[in-house]
Design a protein that fits this description.
single chain, alpha+beta, lpxc deacetylase, domain 1, Ribosomal Protein S5, domain 2, 2 domains, seven-stranded mixed beta sheet, five-stranded mixed beta sheet, 20 strands
């Protein structure tokens, strides 16, 4: 689905919520264990990563193998997020942290893997090529199998929003799991981009998985000078300098920037602890605002419910129409 355009392109679409498609569905995990190595984006250190099958009800759990004891485990949930300044970082009461989790978690959400143990031997997930594609390849190599337990989803019952006028993020009811995002940058290489996304029929692998993280040359140089982003390079990020893309190979999509923001949002929203049934819309949102949105959602018991019999997440209605409705809420 090519939904690139401006918000004006979507104003003609009415908002008509379709009944959510529901049928019995089972939780999933991996068929086999699989591992890889890569570099940490911020530390630059070599990091080992392993994905392990897990029992029903486990969810996504990170385990620091360089540390000992039960305290080395952290559930990938909104209430365990401890830092959102440069990526999404989770931590626990023992002070154990794992950073840069959003691309891997987005992959698990996009491929609908409900339960997995993520072992990592350092404080951050390897950045790989800056996208989710290497993680998607690993998961597809490991395989996905069903478990004898019904899938649970968090169903959005009423609109919830956060923002400050310049940025906003909204969750609202809707059939299936749909996302929309708008970005605006002064850089001529990016400008204004809008895109919608339906989490159904393999769309994640086709539309979002290979979209890379991005940054601006002056910001990256400043971070390097401060000893940050030591593992960042043209091999794992799109670097923008004014109206130029510095990567020799160019972009993977003409709207790679907004696609990656959708990917980040999918990863952050999966920190609800279960897949979401509803629509997310972000306007210039980032990790901090996304997590604030989840905090606002779960602070209101009337805004959500846990549904055990939701089926394979399926499209229903128009994601563009939901984006229009979400923009009105924001």
């Amino acid at each position: 689905m090519d939904a690139i355009g401006t918000p004006e392109d979507f104003r003609a679409n009415g908002y008509a919520q379709q009944p959510a498609e529901r049928r019995n569905a089972l939780q999933t995990t991996l068929k086999d264990e699989i591992s890889c190595t890569g570099r940490g984006l911020h530390s630059g250190a070599k990091v080992g990563l392993a994905l392990l099958p897990a029992d029903a009800g486990t969810g996504i759990v990170f385990r620091r193998t360089d540390l000992a004891g039960q305290g080395a485990e952290i559930a990938a949930r909104w209430d365990n997020v401890v830092d959102t300044r440069m990526s999404t970082t989770i931590g626990n009461a023992e002070g154990v942290v794992v950073g840069t989790i959003e691309h891997l978690v987005a992959t698990l959400a996009g491929l609908q893997v409900d339960n997995v143990i993520v072992e990592v031997n350092g404080p951050e997930v390897p950045v790989m090529d800056g996208s989710s594609e290497p993680f998607a390849f690993l998961i597809e190599c490991a395989g996905i199998r069903e478990l004898d337990a019904p899938r649970r989803v968090v169903e959005i019952l009423k609109p919830v929003s956060v923002g400050n006028g310049e940025k906003s993020a909204v969750l609202m009811p809707g059939a299936g799991s749909t996302y929309s995002f708008e970005i605006e940058f002064a850089s001529g290489a990016i400008g204004r981009q809008v895109r919608t996304f339906d989490l159904s029929n393999g769309a994640f692998r086709r539309e979002l998985a290979s979209a890379r993280t991005f940054g601006f040359r002056e910001e990256i140089e400043a971070m390097h000078a401060s000893g940050l982003a030591r593992g960042g390079s043209l091999a794992n990020a799109v670097v923008v300098d004014g109206s130029r893309i510095l990567n020799p190979e160019g972009l993977r999509f003409r709207d790679e920037f907004v696609r990656h923001k959708l990917l980040d949002s999918l990863g952050d929203m999966r920190l609800a602890g279960h897949p979401l049934l509803g629509h997310f819309h972000g306007y210039r949102s980032g990790h901090a605002l996304n997590i604030e949105l989840l905090r606002r959602l779960f602070a209101d018991a009337s805004a959500w419910r846990l549904v055990e019999t939701a089926g394979q997440i399926a499209a229903g209605g128009s994601a563009e129409a939901r984006m229009r409705a979400a923009r009105a809420i924001a």
